[in-house]
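<derive_structure_tokens>
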Amino acid sequence: MRYFLLGLLIIQSWFAARADTIAFFYAVDADLRTLKEDAREIGQPLAVGSRSIYRLALGPHTIYAVKMGSGSVETAASAQALLSRFRCDWAFSLGPAGALSENLETGRWYRVDRVIAWQRGTATSTGMSMSESSTWETDWGRFPAVTLPPLFRSNSTIAVASGELFVASTSERDRLRATTDADAVDMNSFGLALVCADHGVPLFAWKIISDCADESASEVFRAFVSTYKGEGGKALAEIIVALPAHPHDPASYPAIEKLLREE
């Protein structure tokens, strides 16, 4: 029994030293800036090609952050640059999306539960066939058991159509809504989801509605970027702080904890 408990103590000390490692994928610089207000930057950013990967410490956790880029291909390249170098327990993503559904509110955050790669179909004379499209779904059941900050507390979830084009016309918005049944459109989500799935890292994303994907979308989106204060990054910092320091610690199991106390 003594050697058994000694082994448990060794394993316990190993897990105590190993907190979670988080990959953070952001679209707007303001979210990284507000996250840095609560986190401590460790060393200089790592340059990987044209990308910069930031290393931050927040509580016992390590965060690797990279900007996603413009388009799903650019985002996939950013995600691969980070995840091929650093093993991460979780991936969190923040960014804007254009509304396809009239039910979405500009300036409000939504959880992403499904992503559709809407440009993976076949181009025809009448438009894009979705027969070859790909879909990725979030397993929110794997989300850490933490209390969400008020900004992310809504149960509203959305499906996001993701591609390489910035949708900025009412006709294209309506066509995309009809062919994908998505609620919003962005240029990041599918490339990110694809790479995270390849690396086996659970991905959880929130989107803020920045525009209505209509003829005024370009102007409204630029105004959003210039005035956005990074509220998402601040809320994400609250989530990371609330993560257990070592969720797999053997002492978190009641029977093992009882044995350790008795010894």
User: Anything to note?
Assistant: Confidence is low (pLDDT under 50) at residues 3-17, 122-132, 247-263. The helical segments are 2-17, 29-38, 72-83, 170-180, 189-199, 217-227, 231-242, 254-262. The first strand starts at residue 21 and ends at 26. Residues 100 and 174 are 7 Å apart (CA to CA).
